[in-house]
Design a protein that fits this description.
It is found in: Membrane. Its main location: membrane. It holds the Pfam family FtsQ_DivIB_C. Keywords: Cell cycle, Cell division, Cell membrane, Membrane, Transmembrane, Transmembrane helix. The strands form 4 sheets. Strands 12-11-10-13-14-15-16-17-18 form a 9-stranded mixed β-sheet, with helices on one face. Strands 1-2-3 form a 3-stranded antiparallel β-sheet, with no helix packed on it. A 3-stranded antiparallel β-sheet has the order 4-5-6, with no helix packed on it. It is built from 7 helices and 18 strands. By secondary structure, the protein is α+β, with helices and mostly antiparallel strands. The termini are far apart. The relative contact order is 0.05. Helices cover about 25% and strands about 25% of the residues. It has 4 domains: about 15-50 and about 55-145, no CATH class; about 150-190; about 190-260, membrane protein fhac (Ubiquitin-like (UB roll), Roll); about 265-395, Rossmann fold (3-Layer(aba) Sandwich), CATH 3.40.50. The chain is elongated, with a radius of gyration of 59 Å. A hairpin with a 7-residue loop joins strand 5 and strand 6 (about 140-145).
Length: about 400
C-alpha cells in the first residue's frame, strides 16, 4: 500500500489509495454477486449441493477466514468536493473493469431523488444518506450528510408567525371590547340621561336638611350610574327614617320612598327631657316638653340621643301598647316602671295591672282581656298577672 500527496496553487486533492487482490474465492464472489449483482466477465460460481449419493462421500469447502476473503476484494477510497463546498468521503466496494457492471434491478420501494432520476436517496437515523446509482447498482455509496434540513427552519418560522398572529388577534379583540365598554359607559354617564326631577314619598318628620342633601346627590347624576346607595345611607342616618327605597325613572327622574318610624311611648331622662321611643326601642327624638299624643312610661330612664336604642324594658312597653285591643287602649292612662324592672299599667279609673318582668307579655295581656270582659275594671283595685294566673283585689 502506498500514498502520495501533492499540492497545487489552486486546489488540492488526495491520490486514490488502492488495494488490489488477485485471488477471490468462489464463495466470496457468490455472496458479492447476491448483494451487488453479477460482475462482468466472471461467472457466478455454482452453488454446492449436498450429495445425494453415498452419505459417507467427502466434499471440500472453502474454509478461508472472512478477513482474508474481504482482503481479496478491491476497495477504493475517494474524497470528493461537492459543488456547494460540501466535502464527502466515498467508499466504493466492488471489482475493477474486468467485472460485469450490469446493474441489478432497482428496488421499487426506493424513492428517486428530485435532482436525478438515476439516484435513490435513503436517510438513516444518524443523519447519513445512502445513495445507490442506477448504472452502478452493484456499488454502494455512503455519504455522511450532517447539514441541517432547511425545511426545519421554515416550519419553525411558520409556527412562530402563526403564534404571533394569534396573539395579535386576541389583543385586537380585547382592544375592541374595552373600547366598546368605554364608549357605552361614556354615553350612559352623559348629561342626556341626568336626573332632573326627584320625587319624595312618606316624608313627614324627616329632617329637611337630610332631604336637601339627598336631593343634591341625586340631581345631575345619570339614571344609569347614580349612587343610590349613598343617598339611602344618608337618609337612614335620620332617626325618624326606618326604611328607604330609591328607584330611577328613565330618562330623567328618581323616586324616593321613605318609611318613617312610628312613636309609641316616651319617658323622662335624668336631664328631664322626653325621649320618644318606637316599637323597636329606637329613640326617635328628644324633646324639652312633654308630648301628649303618646303614653308615658313612668320612671327615670337613660339620657340617650336621637337615633340610639333604649333598654329592652322600654321596647317591651312599646310593644305592649301596640298589642292593646281597642276595648282597653282608650282606658289606659300610662305605664309604670319600677326600679326592679317590673312593668305595670295604670288605667284612667285608677286600676293597676301588674305585669311583673317584661316577659311573656302576650299571654299575660290575654289573661287581662278575658278578666275585663267578665268583670268591670272599675270595680277592681289591682290585677296581678305577673305569675301568669290573674289575681285580683276588689275596691
Amino acid at each position: 500500500m502506498s500514498m502520495n500527496n501533492s499540492h497545487d496553487d489552486r486546489d488540492s486533492e488526495e491520490i486514490i489509495e488502492e488495494i488490489s487482490v488477485t485471488e477471490v474465492s468462489d464463495e466470496v464472489l457468490r455472496e458479492l454477486s447476491d448483494l451487488f449483482g453479477p460482475t462482468k466477465g466472471v461467472q457466478r460460481p455454482p452453488v454446492q449441493k449436498t450429495p445425494t449419493g453415498d452419505a459417507t462421500e467427502d466434499f471440500t469447502e472453502d474454509l478461508t477466514p472472512l478477513d482474508a476473503r474481504v482482503a481479496d476484494a478491491e476497495v477504493i477510497s475517494i474524497t470528493q468536493d461537492d459543488s456547494d463546498g460540501y466535502r464527502a468521503e466515498v467508499i466504493v466496494i466492488g471489482g475493477g473493469d474486468e467485472y460485469d457492471l450490469t446493474p441489478a434491478p432497482a428496488d421499487p420501494l426506493l424513492k428517486p431523488l428530485a435532482r436525478g432520476a438515476d439516484l435513490v436517496d435513503m436517510s438513516d437515523d444518524s443523519g447519513g444518506t445512502v445513495v445507490i446509482g442506477d448504472q452502478d447498482i452493484d456499488r454502494v455509496v455512503i455519504v455522511d450528510d450532517d447539514r441541517p434540513d432547511p425545511r426545519f427552519d421554515e416550519r419553525r418560522r411558520r409556527r412562530e408567525r402563526r403564534e404571533r398572529l394569534k396573539r395579535v388577534k386576541w389583543l385586537k379583540l380585547g382592544g375592541v371590547v374595552v373600547g366598546f365598554i368605554v364608549f357605552v359607559m361614556g354615553v350612559l354617564a352623559s348629561p342626556i340621561f341626568a336626573i332632573r326631577n326627584v320625587e319624595l314619598e312618606g316624608v313627614v318628620y324627616t329632617s329637611p336638611a337630610t332631604i336637601e342633601k339627598v336631593t343634591d346627590i341625586l340631581k345631575g347624576a345619570s339614571v344609569f350610574t347614580v349612587d343610590s346607595a349613598d343617598a339611602r345611607e344618608q337618609l337612614l342616618k335620620d332617626p325618624w327614617v326606618a326604611e328607604v327605597r330609591i328607584t330611577t325613572n328613565f330618562p330623567n327622574g328618581a323616586l324616593v320612598e321613605i318609611s318613617e318610624r312610628v312613636p309609641v311611648v316616651w319617658y323622662l331622662g335624668a336631664d328631664q327631657k322626653a325621649r320618644v321611643v318606637d316599637a323597636r326601642g329606637h329613640v326617635i327624638t328628644v324633646l324639652t316638653g312633654w308630648p301628649t299624643k303618646y303614653l308615658q312610661v313612668r320612671g327615670q330612664g337613660p339620657n340617650l340621643e336621637a337615633g340610639a336604642v333604649a333598654d329592652d324594658v322600654f321596647r317591651a312597653a312599646a310593644q305592649l301598647v301596640l298589642a292593646l285591643p281597642p276595648e282597653i287602649r282608650p282606658k289606659v292612662k300610662a305605664l309604670d316602671l319600677t326600679g326592679g324592672g317590673e312593668l305595670s299599667m295604670i288605667l284612667k279609673g285608677g286600676t293597676i295591672v301588674r305585669f311583673g318582668p317584661p316577659s311573656d307579655l302576650k299571654d299575660k295581656l290575654v289573661a287581662v282581656v278575658v278578666l275585663f270582659r267578665r268583670q268591670d275594671p272599675a270595680t277592681l283595685a289591682v290585677v296581678d298577672v305577673s305569675t301568669g294566673e290573674p289575681t285580683i283585689q276588689q275596691r
